[in-house]
Amino acid sequence: MKFTWVLDGDTSILKDAFDIRKKVFIYEQHVDPGIELDGLDQQLIHLIGYIDNRPVATARINLNDAKTKAKIQRVAVIKEHRGQGLGFELMEEIERWAKETNPSIEVLSLSAQDPAIPFYEKLNYRITNEKGYLDANIPHHDMEKQLN
């Protein structure tokens, strides 16, 4: 998988991320479009994975003001490419980016849909809140991974 980082809100490339997110979150999981497309995308960092120039995976990253914590959001792989290790590749690329280009980042955090918790645990993320919560009517738990 070939990766493209969007650090500047380039809408021509962000369209690929939006297309993936619409397929996964809005059409498959029936998340309200107003929740999914929350208006924050222009301010955040995005990663898009391509196979044969076709967008197949995405995530966005929200750095805190001190740039010590990166919250990974909107992790998605299109249905026909799941089970091929692309989610692992995507997450490993985020970790590589954090370590190489932002060494001040100490923690990667995310809000995991409950069925995805085992996936994140394999990447050494740990649940930080035993009591989960609903986000867009989907059960979630917060998870973190220490980098330093």
From TrEMBL:
Domain of life of the organism encoding this protein: Bacteria
InterPro entries named among the record's database cross-references: Acyl_CoA_acyltransferase, GNAT_dom, GNPNAT1-like
Keywords in alphabetical order: Transferase
Residues covered by the N-acetyltransferase domain: 4-148
One Gene Ontology term of the molecular function aspect: glucosamine 6-phosphate N-acetyltransferase activity
CDD domains, alphabetized: NAT_SF (cd04301)
Protein name: GNAT family N-acetyltransferase
